[in-house]
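Support case: user asked for a sample of complex input and structure output to validate their parser. Sending the pair below.
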Amino acid sequence: MMTMFGDPEVWLPLAFAALMGFSILIYVILDGFDLGVGVLSAFVEPAERDRMIASIGPFWDANETWLVMAIGILLVAFPTAHGAILTALYIPVAVMLIGLILRGVAFEFRAKTTGRAHNAWNAAFFSGSLLSSLSQGWMLGIYVMGLEHTAETMAFAALTAFCLTGGYAFIGACWLILKTEGALQDKAVDWAKGGLRLAVAGLLAISVATPLVSPRLLDKWFSFPEFLFLAPLPIVSAGVAGAIWLILRDPDLATGRLAWTPFAGAAALFALGFMGMAYSFYPYVVPEQITIYDAASAPESLLIIFVGAVIVMPVIMAYTALAYYIFRGKARALSYE
Amino acid sequence: MDDPLLLSRIQFAANISFHILFPTITIALGWMLLFFKLRFNRTGDERWMEAYRFWVKIFALSFGLGVVSGITMSFQFGTNWPGFMETVGNIAGPLLAYEIMTAFFLEAAFLGIMLFGASRVPNWVHTLATFLVAFGTTLSAFWILVLNSWMHTPAGFEMIDGQAHATDWLAIIFNPSMPYRLVHVLLASGLTVAFLLMGVSAFRLLVGDRSGGAGLTLKVGAWLGAMLIPVQIFAGDMHGLNTLEHQPQKVAAMEGNWETRGAVPLVLFALPNEELRQNDFEVAIPYGASLILKHDPQGVVPGLNDFVAEDGTVMHPPVAPVFWSFRVMVGTGFLMLLVSWAVVWTLWRKGGAQALNPWVLRGLVAMTFSGWVATLAGWYTTEIGRQPWVVQGVLATEDAVADVPAPMVAGSLTAYLAVYVFLLTAYITVMFGLARKAAKADRGAFDLPDRRSGRAALAPAE
């Protein structure tokens, strides 16, 4: 079976890089909207906050599992890269973990407390979401810059930290358009408009800054004929962003049947941006240092995970879809009944 | 405190000690909830549903803390212990991957339905979701204990260029200590939940709960504890004999035995002195250790001095922490035996939990988290007992640690500790707050819970 698709030392690392990329993308979209809702939760009335958190309550745990999946694949398929990346990102990883801890436990604690303690857990929910988003954006920036810490790369990381948080707020707002109604939904439309501007500005900034600081990427993006294959990415992204903008301006969006479209568009934008990143970095898993082929575990160990993944992943997709189906429609107040 | 190795070990120990508290509760509590639900489906007795509704809140809280503290673990390997995956990644990787793919997604996806979906799905789907969450937590425990056991008794691999390569996956999964460790840990989870049920229910009775629900869960906890503890003592003894076979230096440290010899006494109390390589202030029962470990008063028991290399390098674990952790675990276990059997005996004679003496109830409240104490002490015994190895005989702990500057590790460690102390305080405060609220809600419609005092009771750490 190992040689079924050719040399296992070639196709297995590639398959795991694809699976890891897929997990990161799913994580960024799914927990992205959770974290975005968390960041936006600071700007509403208490009743609206309850409704917002109810809209993500049944899903966040499974969404966060995609991060464990992505980091797990990095750990098991590319162990040397896992060590190199995470020791280089030691501090932002610690900050993100503390943010995720605060955000995660606040779901439960805020539901079981009242008064000052309840307010404190709301603050923990917001600041945990914000810390997680910012540190993830920071790590993205440092990673794009080849895991180097200079004044330039850190300024770039600050920019990506801000833009990814904006992007999360954008997809979070789009989720709320889908899952809420009334005044809160109107607010979500306004947030989505602002968030879209930020997300587009962020994508542009990263696209301009990346080739400026990385000669390799300048080369990779603007050499012929690669440029032609790459050109559809920004063109389609611009088209999607334009379409979302038009839909957000539609006064009938809230009541119409198109309330799901901004979220789908936001997810598509994330996917396009991610594909651009993936193209830029292949075949490296640690930028400019370690390729996926150098970092990969032994083929016999990868194969046994691959077989499991082929069987289990469709099942995971199926019951994840089931959970979203069960909690379809507008968010209701959560209760354990 | 400027040694990255020591700091990284403390940080890993802090993270995993905090993490294991919550799976220890959720593994068995998941099955308990399924039991409550099935009893209600069968009998229609409202008290079972009331028990389900109350304990599912504690389950949700514990599960949330378990998830977030578990995520920290998956990053620790890379941030602090890159040498671990570089050497044994080919073995540990697939086991961790199977845990994520078969267990994590399962429990996370069905937790939402279990917690919030009762009004959206048919009752049988909700019962099924409860089952799948309990099954997922247990499956997760299975995979992680396979890996942990393999680190103690590695099997089914060969070393090529300093890296472990799998040769036989069945031998890896069913490595020599796995069955014993798995049973021992699952029983520990059951006992932890038994005393949690008793402690929180006793607290509800003490603050005036007369609903019958608290009495019922106290009784369930007492029976569960009384049934499991003898099994656990037997399983623990079997696990100890297995350790004697595969890691004799750990058993030597547990017993505080320095010289390999026959007729070894059972040391009850001592201060192990590693400098003079002897025990100070020893109190011991003659022939005890030989009898327990070899079932023969003259049986030869290995001693620590066999594990010192010719050049004086110590290849056995630090003695005092292993010696003392072991005694704390065994002591807590026998206290659990005494208490659970006494409570079951009293319930049997007097009929109901309401008849229990308030001092007995207070004692049970004090023992609410005794399962945590025994579990942690047991983990320290076995994990410190494996030192100086991280994978017995394959990889030394000092060869696995990352080259991260000590101040950075100290900084992250301080931050984690602060968060953990805060969360543990909040967790316990909110748990007893929920119990107080449940007790007041059960006083009847004319005595509604006082909003202001309810709020004060629920505020954590004010």
